[in-house]
């Protein structure tokens, strides 16, 4: 089989014993050597998928292929995977070296101690923890423990590396540093990696590709930038992006899209972006705060309720039709709380969704 | 600062008074009495004569020998069986809490009561144990009434009574081991034995150190089970006498409190020394 489908998941379903349907018909594939992020809110099924891939859980139905071969009936130890747990699960009574060596000195294919030590030392060097060899895990910082866990996952030379929220126990600054390190490390080793996270920023920064889940269903399986530029549906548009996207209730009627205080001629929109003919009726118009900006000739008059500073930019907060919305402006824009201003949206950057979330523009 | 100090002493006072009267004073008193002879109401200084008597008394040496044998045999075997049972209950048995409660019951039952029941179980003629042994065509010894079997009987009983406490504590320790440790091990194909020796045992070391200390101290103070098993005696012809039984006998029956206290001091020093040795040993194991 080709390298394009090194990991292939087909029609995967998982229903837990209590009847909870964690995964509903999920299919995706991962290219050899890629780092793919499984992204989604808590309880969306992403960790369940990782555990099924690892063999810690068995699927209710569906198939998983590694390098073209079905592994659904293969025991975890024979799947050639490395797994990094969320809390690392390092053995507290073993030194760093013993922890990293562990996968090599147990099981049927265990290696002689000297050989195992040599391999372990190679991966400890890669993970930059050689000087910690004799330390116990409880003497290490979170970042160091993280590296030990990764070295232990890689030491068996697996074909696939699975990581379950590996950065969630680290503080914000360290997280930025470690995620870059993880990316360069797995790229250096060339291992195919699946990385579970609930942090979109993390996913966007390290993933070659992102698969966004919600409610046990794939919402979008795409390159990072497309989640911004071409969201598949209302959920994706609202999940990705910070500050979150603005949503306005609109009505299409008489060749116009009308909301409280503003209207847009359908003819002014980019006709190529329509996914299909849309009948008159209720829709949701969404626009990212950076694409709705103060303008003398803007069609939407608003009253600035609050201003939040986020580094280089400021978020103007205003109320429209009972809901809060935002505009992202430059730090030096001369606008104060309480000002009445006019806003203009970039019509080629707005999205239209049906009330049940389908994107039509 | 001054008032704070006063308040601190006030709060500490109940404990200090309690400990002084019920722990420190008896220890000092025992130490002093070990250099005195006569009856309790008429003591006089006699120097080291109690100790001289003690070291020449063959019964004292038998008591020490029995106690040491009892500790050295019953504690390791008891602990090993406890680990095995705890591990089986923990990893193989459903309804763990039921078994845990069952195993803990002997601990909350009086040793005297259990000892009396065991006297019937151990009975040479109509005891349950010998009934089973005869059914299996094994030799059925005279557990209670044969002087050469006394210590063996005490040891078997001691092992049995030590299980309850050990198992419950070990179950708690097993429950505290992160289940992911085993998931990781499974992932790399570790066998059941490898998981036990490489993960479970090292994780249990601190608990085992605690249990070993408690068990050894308990074993050196063994008395109640002897009393219950042999109906207030120390076996036929005192064959099953132990250090504390010797002390009790010299104090209560023979009426030589000085000798009893000298034996107490010796036993105290032995336990102190062994505990100290054990701590050193465990520290070494912990470091590796």
UniProtKB/TrEMBL annotation, chain A:
PROSITE patterns: ABC_TRANSPORTER_1, ABC_TRANSPORTER_2. The keyword Nucleotide-binding applies. GO terms for molecular function: ABC-type ferric iron transporter activity; ATP binding; ATP hydrolysis activity. It comes from the Bacteria. CDD domains: ABC_Carb_Solutes_like (cd03259). One of its GO terms (cellular component) is ATP-binding cassette (ABC) transporter complex, substrate-binding subunit-containing. Pfam families: ABC_tran (PF00005), TOBE_2 (PF08402). The keyword Metal-binding does not apply. Keywords: ATP-binding, Cell membrane, Membrane, Nucleotide-binding, Translocase, Transport. Residues 7-240 form the ABC transporter domain. PANTHER family: MALTODEXTRIN IMPORT ATP-BINDING PROTEIN MSMX, OSMOPROTECTIVE COMPOUNDS UPTAKE ATP-BINDING PROTEIN GGTA. This is ABC transporter ATP-binding protein.
From TrEMBL, chain B:
Residues 64-278 form the ABC transmembrane type-1 domain. It is found in: Cell membrane. The keyword Membrane applies. GO terms for biological process: transmembrane transport. InterPro entries: ABC_transporter_permease, MetI-like, MetI-like_sf. Keywords: Cell membrane, Membrane, Transmembrane, Transmembrane helix, Transport. It comes from the Bacteria. The keyword Nucleotide-binding does not apply. The chain crosses the membrane at residues 9-28, 68-90, 102-122, 151-174, 204-223, 258-277. GO terms for cellular component: plasma membrane. It is a multi-pass membrane protein. PANTHER family: ABC TRANSPORTER PERMEASE PROTEIN, INNER MEMBRANE ABC TRANSPORTER PERMEASE PROTEIN YCJO. Belongs to the binding-protein-dependent transport system permease family. This is Sugar ABC transporter permease. It comes from Lactobacillus acetotolerans.
